[in-house]
User: What shape does this take?
Amino acid sequence: MSTVHDVLKQKGTQVFSIGAKASVLDAALLMNEHRIGGLVVLRSAKVGGIITERDVLRRVVAKRADPADVMVKEVMTSDVVCCKRTATIEEARAIFKTKRIRHLPVVDDQGRLDGLISIGDINGWKLDGQEKTIHYLKEYLYG
Assistant: This one.
């Protein structure tokens, strides 16, 4: 059975992060620069929160606050759901669905950040597997 570790092997373990005391403007610029939808907020190499495009829209833009004057810690999601590398793809999918999240930090046994997966990574993994299955079945049926 495929695990989160398998997805990270294919995707890589690079995670973009930011400090809690950085400005939301800095976070938005970093997300734009790397074309990503969220940043992990680190505290002593452990996940302290996550800030996403949605957080910026709802908690800064919609309130007409100046992103240069708002700190990440004021608008980030602090109660972050994480998983371990050993979690199965189906377990990760269930977390995405039940918690209604799009980014899932992967942590080691000590709670240190080990990677990050998105719902898109999980969907892409499943699609690749289905395409391989279709290819093998065609080869089997039609030679």
About this structure: The chain has a mean pLDDT of 91. Helices lie at 4-11, 24-34, 53-61, 72-75, 89-99, 119-142. The chain has one domain: 4-142.
